[in-house]
Amino acid sequence: MENRVKEWMVQYIASVLQCEAATIDVAATFDVHGLDSVEAVIMAGLMEEEFRTAIDPMELYENPSISLFAEHFSKTHSVEDGAGTAA
Amino acid sequence: MSAPELTIALVCWQMSREVPRTLLSLSRGFQRGMEDIDYEIIVVDNGSDRLPEAPAMEPKPQILRATVPSPSPVGAMNQALSQARGRLIGAWIDGARMASSGLLRAICGAAKLHARPVLAVPNWQLGPNRQAVSVHDGYCAEVEDRLLADAGWPDANVDLFSIAAPEMSHIAGPMLESNALFLRADDWKALGGFDPAFSEAGGGAANPDVFQRALALPGAQLIRIAGEATFHQIHGGTTTAGRDRAVMAVKQAAQRYSRLRGHPLRQVRDRGWIYDAATGTVERGE
Q1: H-type helices in B94-197, by residue range?
Q2: Distance CA B176, CA B265 (A)
Q3: Taking CB atoms and an 8 Å cutoff, what residues of chain A touch B239?
Q4: Tell me, what DSSP letter sits at residue B49?
Q5: Quick one: pLDDT at residue B285?
Q6: What is the dihedral of CA A53, B204, B210, B241, to 10 degrees?
Q7: Interchain contact, A45 vs B255, CB within 8 Å
Q8: 3-state SS class at B118
Q9: Taking each helix axis from N to C terminus, what angle separates A2-17 and A66-76, rounded to the nearest 10 degrees?
Q10: Are B28 and B57 in contact (CB under 8 A)?
Q11: Which residues of A touch B212 (CB under 8 A)?
């Protein structure tokens, strides 16, 4: 699950920033990517749909990079079968 | 009757406390430098128990009932736009937002700089913080009334910036929407106004969507207005009624937008041109 979340976030942030996914550094903090608090809430909303689990935007503040959040998510969220498979 | 230079097309619902202040802030008595500019204000009420009252002011606002009231403001917004006669029209989707005193003059000045301007005024919120946060510290209508009175409202010299918080980190930063979005009348026609597909209560991402679509018009030029703003009065709206409701509203708006448009809701990152309202100069960033 950690890798699926990581991959989804890379694709998502690349789409928001309209850049190549390969340029997204998974260790960089969200503010380095230029994402602000509104975008954190938007991302949480779309992740909820994708992974079918409630996500508090505070989880993104407390785990402020793709790598940190993906690790946190895989440890703390139970995800239904099939969720997060549509890239 | 000749067309006015400017129309403000404003929507409200259950805002009997807030709309009179908003209208007064748009009056010739409050707006600086508008003595020689003809403008009109159209209000469409989206099904309130009673219509808001306009203060004694010039120009006298035209207050209409929505033909088809709806939980979404989009229909009322489009009705207001359809009534507008101005060459330049501003969509004011939240009637609870007061204007800074140089806003209309700045819009008129900035509009002269380009044939197809998309004029975006930054959103601020009255009070010490974003209202979704400050309500948890006791911020409410009564506190806001005192804050405005102590600052000198409705005196035209009141400094609303000194009692408010910005929604953007800086004028050139990512911008989700503008509550005072001005386009030429022909460009509103080209857009077809706001998209009725945003039928949810509060309109969801209808306003960010129209901003994005306006910028996608061929040859459109974003012009951000620095030094002027709209100021949200607290009224229990969808994104300022407490943190949990605000988060839920933004999440739902983002989900709906993504389903409708097939891509995520994005903030505008194009820096565009920045018009300095204080000096009347523009920074093109070239």
Answers
A1: 103-111, 131-134, 141-151, 185-191
A2: 9
A3: none
A4: S
A5: 85
A6: -110
A7: yes
A8: strand
A9: 140
A10: yes
A11: none
On whether ipTM exceeds 0.95, the answer is no
Can you give the pLDDT at residue A41? 94
Burial call B56-82: b when 16+ CB within 10 Å, e when fewer: ebebebebeebeebbebbbbbbbbbbe
- pLDDT tens figures, B104-157: 999 999 999 999 999 999 999 999 999 988 998 999 999 999 999 999 999 999
Q: Which residues of B touch A (CB under 8 A)?
A: 169, 173-174, 176, 247, 250-255, 258, 263-267, 269
Give the Cα separation of B86 and B84 in Å (integer).
Answer: 6
pTM: 0.93
pLDDT digits (tens), chain A, 87 positions: 889 999 999 999 999 999 999 999 999 999 999 999 899 999 999 999 999 999 999 999 999 999 999 999 999 987 766 666 554
| CA A16/CA B59 separation, integer angstroms | 42
Report residue B158: phi and psi, to 5°: -60, 140
CA distances, B244 to each of B41, B140, B225, B239, B280 (Å): 34, 16, 31, 9, 40
CA dihedral A7, A9, A12, A16 (to 10 degrees): -140
